[in-house]
């Protein structure tokens, strides 16, 4: 059985500490807006389901931005 690697051998690899640091930054970028939108909408509207829906929508929007940011910061030149 032959295994084909899809990674480029010319690019240097990221160290574990760089991956952890950059992954933590991306997770903060995705988590903070969704949690703050959830908590603010729960306080303002005083309805859990509305807050849950708004927090989920904001979370999926943040996931889209997180994908774009991760493609830029996780590639080492």
Word description of this protein:
- 73% of the residues lie in helices and 0% in strands.
- It is mainly α and 77 residues long.
- The radius of gyration is 18 Å and the shape is elongated.
- The protein has two helices and no strands.
- The protein has a domain at 33-77.
Could you give a quick summary of the protein structure above?
With about 80 residues, this protein is mainly α.
Describe the largest sheet. none
Spatial gap, N to C terminus: 32 Å
Q: How many DSSP E strands?
A: 0
The overall pLDDT, averaged over residues, is: 83
Question: Counting H and I runs of at least 4 residues, what is the number of helices?
Answer: 2
Helix content, binned percent: over 70%
Proportion of β residues?
A: under 5%
The low-confidence runs, each spanning 5 or more residues with pLDDT under 50, are none
Q: How much is the radius of gyration in Å? A: 18 Å
Helix vs. strand class: mainly alpha
Shape: elongated
The SSE order reads HH
Q: Can you lay out the helices and strands and say which pair or pack?
A:
Layout: H1 16-45, H2 48-73
Helix pairs in contact: 1-2
Which descriptors apply to this entry?
77 residues; 2 helices; mainly alpha; 0% strand
